[in-house]
Write a structure and sequence with these properties.
- α8 crosses α9 and α12 packs across α17.
- The longest helix is centred in the middle third of the chain and has 27 residues, at about 155-180.
- The model has no long low-confidence stretch (mean pLDDT about 95).
- The protein has helices at about 35-40, 75-80, 85-90, 100-110, 115-120, 130-140, 155-180, 195-205, 215-225, 235-245, 250-260, 270-280, 285-295, 315-330, 335-350, 350-355, 365-375, 380-400; strands at about 1-5, 15-20, 30, 60, 65-70, 70-75.
- By secondary structure, the protein is mainly α.
- The protein starts with a strand and ends in a 28-residue tail after the last helix.
- The structure holds acetyl coenzyme *A.
- Acetyl coenzyme *A (ACO) binds near residues 264, 266, 300 and 303.
- The site of acetyl coenzyme *A has 19 residues, from loops.
Length: about 425
């Protein structure tokens, strides 16, 4: 279908633009010919009305609070699947057969170890370096280790890259954690499943026995599933944009990790804990809610609001239930921070400001409380998010590279700077 659009400001100007329908979600207007037809650009800072690509991976209906991975509701995957199975689904488009799953698990296991030289990179970081700084740096450095399998046009090279990075992210993250604590690095154990191995690398020490708690495994696997992908969010778009230049995929993923770190995105889980610590007590909630509503105050309720969800984030509901379960199993159901979070949620949900702006708890409102209960330091929360999202970034990068229509991402601008002017010698300025 194609429609004629009148351009305001010039009654004569119009453009004939095609529109397309996806399988779900709003139609899109194809503005690619607009510049050629009318010498105008579209203007959409923050890309709230822009579909930057076609994608078959993840669908979100923000009004209804729906999230689908390859068509499967995230609630069903959270209840029935494992993170590794979800990785297969996101990467290959279909749920695996038993044989495919077992082969995939095996492929991931055979890539969990880190090159010892890469391990030594951590010694270059100060002990109090933020783990996101270490993880993004070390992931970027992977391009210096695996250049023999980095032909991005070669499907097998892309597959090896995808297995390698999904397998190694927990190992790299655990190394960052151990470095910050000054503890010896713990090597991966390939007899363990993905989440158990992750916990073992983080929390075991050579001097003691470490028993992997099944509730911790269940909670980690769930959090990994819920964070695995989220269509064209900030970090995924960053990976696509960086990757669109043809750069090697490790560099593109490192760019995604850097984008994830910000408090408006994946850094929110750490920021929620900091905020709950600042609020400190239920009697201060009103004061902080007032600060969040004050236009002259930069304070925001971290873990609230979302660009796409204008209803409950379906992931937040699942995580809140898991939070209850984990705290109860660990005998910490009277955790004051959890109680504070529940109360803050109730106050905000009844407040006109949050109701009118449709600001609901997002995925990160409760995830930090679970991570904290399991023993992770707040600075590791966003790293956990990065581990989970790696498969989403890789799936989108693969989709982009294999899309015959893909071009280098190169937006334009509305220039508002000075018009052409002549250089003035320094003595005359
Ligand atoms: N607290 C108080 N007010 C808020 C909040 C909040 N958490 N979130 C949005 N608002 C207000 C804004 O002030 C704005 O008000 P206005 O219309 O009067 O100017 C309105 O709601 C819309 O907010 P925007 O910032 O324009 O919305 P946007 O879609 O650009 O931002 C974002 C979404 C970044 C998530 C925002 O809601 C926010 O900063 N939330 C807190 C940080 C957070 O939890 N981030 C994690 C997001 S989930 C994820 O990435 C994993």
């Amino acid at each position: 279908m194609s429609n004629t659009y009148k351009l305001s400001g010039n009654s004569e100007a119009s453009a004939e633009l095609p529109s397309y329908s996806g399988t779900l979600g709003p139609d899109v207007v194809d503005v690619r010919s607009l510049y050629a037809q009318q010498d105008v650009f579209t203007f959409d800072p923050g890309f709230a009305s822009t579909a930057s690509c076609k994608s078959e991976i993840t669908f979100i209906d923000g009004k209804e609070g729906v999230l689908l991975y390859r068509g499967y509701p995230v609630e069903q995957l959270a209840n029935n699947s494992t993170y590794i199975e979800v990785c297969y689904l996101l990467l290959y488009g279909e749920l695996p057969t038993a044989t495919q799953l077992s082969n995939f698990e095996n492929d991931i296991r055979t890539h969990t170890m880190m090159n010892e030289t890469m391990l030594r990179l951590f010694n270059g970081f100060h002990h109090d370096a933020h783990p996101m700084a270490m993880v993004s740096g070390v992931v970027g450095s992977m391009s210096a280790f695996y250049h023999e399998t980095m032909d991005i046009q070669n499907p097998r090279h892309r597959e090896i890259f995808s297995h390698r990075i999904i397998a190694k992210l927990p190992t790299i993250a655990a190394a960052a954690y151990k470095h910050s604590l000054g503890q010896p690095f713990v090597y991966p154990r390939n007899d363990l499943d993905y989440s158990s191995n992750l916990l073992n690398m983080f929390f075991s020490v050579p001097a003691d026995d470490y028993e992997i708690d099944p509730i911790a495994v269940e909670a980690i696997d769930l959090l990994l599933i819920l964070h695995a992908d989220h269509e064209q969010n900030c970090s995924t778009s960053t990976v696509r944009l960086a990757g669109s230049s043809g750069t090697n995929p490790y560099s593109a993923i490192a760019a995604g990790i850097a984008a994830l770190w910000g408090p408006a995105h994946g850094g929110a889980n750490e920021a929620v804990l900091t905020m709950l610590g600042q609020i400190g007590n239920a009697k201060n909630i009103t004061e902080y809610v007032a600060k969040a509503k004050d236009k002259n105050d930069s304070f925001r309720l971290m873990g609230f609001g979302h660009r796409v969800y204008k209803n409950f984030d379906p992931r937040a509901t699942i995580i809140r239930d898991m939070c209850h379960k984990v705290l109860a199993k660990l005998g910490r159901d009277d955790d004051p921070l959890f109680e504070l979070a529940l109360e803050l949620e109730q106050v905000a949900l009844k407040d006109d400001y949050f109701v009118e702006k449709r600001l609901y708890p997002n995925v990160d409102f409760y995830s930090g409380i679970i991570y904290r209960a399991l023993g992770f330091q707040p600075s590791m929360f966003t790293v956990m998010f990065a581990i989970a999202r790696t498969v989403g970034w890789v799936s989108h990068w693969q989709e982009m590279i294999t899309d015959p229509e893909h071009r280098i991402g190169r937006p334009r601008q509305l220039y508002t700077g000075p018009k052409t002017r002549d250089y003035v010698d320094v003595a005359k300025r």
